Every structure is written in structure tokens, then in C-alpha cells.
Amino acid sequence: MVPGLTVVLLFTFVLQWGNFFVPHILLLSPEKQPAAVPIYTFFSQYGQVAYGQLAAFSILHTAPVLLLYPALSKVLGEAFSLTGAVKG
Q1: Is-above-0.85 flag for pTM?
Q2: Is there a contact between 39 and 57 (Cβ–Cβ < 8 Å)?
Q3: CB neighbours of 14 closer than 8 A, spacing ≥ 6?
């Protein structure tokens, strides 16, 4: 049961971490918005993009997800070993 819960935890975290639309519409104060919403501010009204700031923020935004996967890979690796799948 632990590998299944781990996969659900990982997917839920990744989906909530990258959630953009609902917080952008409902949360008005910038302090309460998740990290995906401020990425939108790097695109200006006239089509200019702050590429350096966008790249740096994107790397910082993906770092927790990239660090979470190796931490959970041992549990996830046991899920795909198929031990106990066949009697014998």
C-alpha cells in the first residue's frame, strides 16, 4: 500500500505545485499565491519577456519537484519490482 500512496502523494504535489488558473483567479494578495502564478508576471503587456528572470525563476520553481523524486524513488522502485505478483 505504501508505493501506491507514494505515487498519489507525488502526483498530488506536482499538480498542486504547478496549479496556475484557480489561484490566479481567486487569490488577490501576492503573498498567498503559489509559485506558478508569479511566472506570469515575467511576460509584459507588449510581448516583451524578461528571459533571464524567467529562466532563473523556472529553475527555482522546478527544484522542489526534482528533489522530491529521488527522495521517493526507493519507495517507487519497490512498486515496480512485481514481487508477490506470481505465486510459486
Answers
A1: no
A2: yes
A3: 65
